């Protein structure tokens, strides 16, 4: 797949979100992900709005943002999701989940941040074993079922609960699988195969077509992303002395192949597609350009805390990854949006020269 254009890979990728992402990359001529490691929610939203046109993925660490608003209707996640639709990018919460299956399911879907609600993509370190991937895939399938479907509470318990939908859905219906009938019994999801429509209220901020100033909120040229959630496996790290072995990386490759419907690809330092039908996407952090005017030789000085950097040209053209993840290289520039454009151009050029 290394020598195939993203537009071709869009047709053969298994995961709906990967197909969408490859098309978005082609449309925006961008294989750049911004790692938005700023300290406040206000800065995060401002940065996403300014840099949005240059990127295809915005990577977050919600837990390093102060003032993150957890409100599921109006909070930071919802606002980010609106910016993602406006500019055409996917949100990747770099949570690096690692725990037993049950715990990661709960961390992924519930708690304060409800990551699954606003992040199209998240990632996992599979040191705990690959069962965890199955647990997360199950949580994602249930989530999709819940927001998309028929929650037929009456099937099991008789008495309809307020807001239930039996016939394909009424507007403003916000039944959830936590709804209970008069006897306190929970409803259950009975079908995950008959997608009819999204049951998100039509006035949900996440689905608004314009903002309060009347600005268009839907990126032109491509439809909205599918309601699927995707996982990246943390197969290799950029940091000095990383303890992930070749065997661990190989286990990630096996887990990815076993869960193609949920695993989109890897966070890795090199291309890991080796079987003929592997079409996983690779996102690579530890990316920086030398300051403008300075010569490029592939490597850039680390940060003194273990982070190591390569240039987009080396990562994309030589090591064969697909999307470069850049944090401080862009954020700490005098003008982040124009620096993001510089990275976008360099990374896209590296991709074009890989195609030859
Ligand atoms: N990150 C790495 N290396 C990895 C995995 N993840 O740096 O192997 C993440 C960091 C940070 C970003 O958590 O959010 O990518 C890199 O930021 P930087 O460009 O400012 O170094």
UniProtKB/TrEMBL annotation:
Q: What class of enzyme is it?
A: lyase
Q: From the UniProt entry, list the residue stretches annotated as the region Disordered.
A: 160-185
Q: Which InterPro entries does the entry mention?
A: Aldolase_TIM (IPR013785), OMPdecase (IPR014732), OMPdecase_AS (IPR018089), OMPdeCOase_dom (IPR001754), RibuloseP-bd_barrel (IPR011060)
Q: Which pathway does the record list?
A: Pyrimidine metabolism; UMP biosynthesis via de novo pathway; UMP from orotate: step 2/2
Any one GO molecular function term? orotidine-5'-phosphate decarboxylase activity
Keywords of the record, alphabetical order, are: Decarboxylase, Lyase, Pyrimidine biosynthesis
**Gene3D superfamilies this protein is in?**
Aldolase class I (3.20.20.70)
What Enzyme Commission number(s) apply to this enzyme?
4.1.1.23
Q: From the record, what ranges are coiled-coil? A: none
Q: Where is the Orotidine 5'-phosphate decarboxylase domain?
A: 31-343
* Superkingdom of the organism of origin: Eukaryota
| Residues annotated as the enzyme's active site | 94 (for ompdecase activity), 96 (for ompdecase activity), 99 (for ompdecase activity)
Q: SUPFAM superfamilies from the entry? A: Ribulose-phoshate binding barrel
**One Pfam family from the record:** OMPdecase
**Where is it found, in Gene Ontology cellular component terms?**
cytosol
- Please provide the Gene Ontology terms (biological process) for this protein: 'de novo' pyrimidine nucleobase biosynthetic process; 'de novo' UMP biosynthetic process
Protein family: Belongs to the OMP decarboxylase family.
Give the protein name, as stated in the record.
Orotidine 5'-phosphate decarboxylase
